[in-house]
Records
---
Amino acid sequence: MDGILNVIKPTGVSSFSFMRQVQRKLNIKKIGHLGTLDPNACGVLVLLCGRATKLNQSLSGGTKVYRSVFTFGIETDTLDTVGEVIARNEAIPTRKQVEEILPTIIGDTEIQVPKFSAVHIGGRRAYDLARNGVDFTPPTKTVKIYRFELLKQIAPNKFWVEIECETGTYVRSLAKLVATRLGTVAIASSILRTRVGDFDIKDAKCLQDVAINNLLKV
């Protein structure tokens, strides 16, 4: 069974676990993906099935689009809603301040990889070290941000943003970066991936709806 599946990963499950659910449902022998989502994130997850797994390198360079709610005034160790609170700050930016800071992050931007991430630190996953209380400084990386827009202010401390970026960008890290530049703290309280390369959420299928005839032949 060869082809590409555009599916919607729900929140509360890892990309790997959800991929295995699809694999079992459709009885696919070989399967891969074009980039994971955090367990607390949802949205487009592109699965490569059968011989299509060989296309990983050629397809993985496309841009990705996310919609996220940045909640200011609080920081957690995971930089989202599932972690423990490690900082609070009563300084909440205005809509104008957020609108003005976002364009300054467009282009090549250095971010710090979250402690709770799958990056390898000395041969171990960063999230394993963090969960075991190991003190370490996560690495930084340079990513390219193509578009960073404020869509709406939905509460005094909550701002809904849209980001178009290269693969490997951590939205949680962008929330922290924006907050730092504004002299406060923040988390990405929700993350929705709406596009991976040419694969859009409007064409994606939920697990209960995904079927063999959804495979895009390659």
Note: Residues 3-61+197-214 form a domain with the Pseudouridine synthase fold (CATH 3.30.2350.10).
---
Amino acid sequence: MTADAKPKRRAISKKTRFEVFKRDAFACQYCGAHPPGALLHVDHILAVAAGGTNVIDNLITACAPCNLGKGARDLKAAPQSLADKAKEVQEREAQLAGYQAIFEAKRQRIEDETWRVLGYLYPGQNTVPRDSHVSVKRFIERLGVHAVLEAAEIALGAPIGHHKVWRYFCGVCWRLVRELDGTNA
């Protein structure tokens, strides 16, 4: 390489990025910023321009402002190109879409589980009282579907009239909630 040639920058693999983030506890090692308030980068301790490589011992977690401003300029004065801003927005959007997908999947799972329990408690009925739907959903969120299904089985197996099954079911669930909270009063 001639004196004028710059070292070639090589992309850092996603696996290596994750290992660096994990090692550094997902926090900027310069200022302590962490997600969700900061977009993290992997920074070279010894810059590529100065001969630094992508070995893990030469990499460190940095938030975007610290990484972009680490040069000779003041951190607040580091300009961000339009392309870099677009890339950052795209990354934030991808992270947000993933985050929303996880919560949507959870919401759909709980909804499906709610109707499964309601099918036991209200067999053969196409409609159920709204407050029953809401209550079962909340019990599932607190106790998990298996505990709620077991409570439904207990209530349905109790020697009581069918019109009292719902109240008995709720009583069993509330007892489980109190046990879970440690307020068994």
Note: The radius of gyration is 27 Å.
---
Amino acid sequence: MKTSARFIPKSKGQKIKKPIQFFLVRFVGLFLLLIGLLFIPAGRLDWWEAWLLVLVYAIFIVVYLLIGLRKDPDQIIERSQVGENAKSWDRTILGIYSLLLLVMLVVAGLDAGRFRWAPVSTALEILGWLSLCLAGGLIWWTASVNTFLSRQVRIQVERGHHTVTTGPYRYVRHPMYDGVILFVIGIPLLLGAGWALLPAGLIAVLFVIRTALEDKTLKEELGVYREYADKVRYRLLPGIW
């Protein structure tokens, strides 16, 4: 039975203390990094789209942490650490992802914030915000049903890792990655930075590759995942792949 954050036993509270510190430090660091990567290349502070993005991101992370600590502290603990059996190829993919994300934000700052190289229409900016909202909802839905959600690809043997088949997993096998792809595609659009779609597109391709590799790993190492994959045929896009 899961214990709420309000009545966490002493041993459980001690176990959660470090993840809370990790998320707070990481949140503040990412918050400052996001501001720097957007506004320094832009060379100005009067960029309301970027400030709104920063605000929405901050609210999402804080709400996720607060609700996660109450509803599913084990997931918070898992996402605050790197497991010993994390796949080496996934560390490489995450490193490339981090680099591309930095490039995307810098290019967005230079493009939309300073030089206006490739502005997008208002309709596309609205589409970007809709994509961001859809991404947030999908990520939240996924996190609410999958306590084994992790930052890295690994089999969580110590937690009794098993295949999750509820929520969005009834339709696709990797809904979290759908959320990530929608998120990174939406950012250049809502900021009005056409050139930033290039690194965003590369991130999308990278996560398609990660999906295929993770799917192969799960079929080989995770219980009845192969049977689940036979029932839910599509990895990311229903009816397509």
Note: The CA atoms of residues 75 and 147 lie 5 Å apart.
